[in-house]
């Protein structure tokens, strides 16, 4: 191997080795070296493109989950009386935000300077525009003021540009097109606070994909099937009411009644799963589960040594 810079094939091999070893920072470095040596003069292969995506996704994923958990802790500390603890956790959250910004801005810079200019094929262009929208969306979690407005507009522009290409050039059951719909609808729901638009987008994507799949001789690939299910899960989550009751006269008991799709989402998917488990472990509740044919009811009893019932219920509402 060249002592100074690995070849294209060597970069791919090393990136896969780093991925297997869960050394994602090094995986990013190997793929970034490849991108800078190949693009924008030439386009990445599908395998190379997916390795770039996987490298950065595995870098940003734990940071996003950590930020959600630390933000919940910060909220609880801000409601308390220990200003020093609140300041410490606030500083830690800012450190996480700095790390998130570094990862997001790194890939966003690479997309602008190399990946998008090299993307001649429609699937590549949609893939990279979706990535651009995604990483701006991650930054929007903690952006404020004018920065938030500018970033939201930039994410919308990227997602919309990707959608304009996808509806013309990509099949309705294409995993790239469906992945775009999945993330664009999340952006509409979480960032723009437009649940109706998010639901309509997800529903239309599912219906168009299913209609095409019915005409195909071969079954859809596993990525298509998975993304359709994720769209269905989101649609169920967004259209399902969460019933949160505090029994009259029993201020130490909380009852949560959820439809089955909502329970599945809470239990099976990050970052909600991580946030919920963190809340449950740090709270002072014992839990009883009563399963019905269509619903699951969780009954939480506050331990005798715990106080401030309302703070626990407000934390839970934040997670839901």
UniProtKB/TrEMBL annotation:
InterPro entries: 14-3-3, 14-3-3_dom_sf, 14-3-3_domain, PSI_PsaA/B, PSI_PsaA/B_sf. It holds the Pfam family PsaA_PsaB. One of its GO terms (biological process) is photosynthesis. GO terms for cellular component: membrane; thylakoid. Residues 8-252 form the 14-3-3 domain. Belongs to the 14-3-3 family. This is 14-3-3-like protein GF14 kappa isoform X1. The lineage of its organism: Eukaryota, Viridiplantae, Streptophyta, Embryophyta, Tracheophyta.
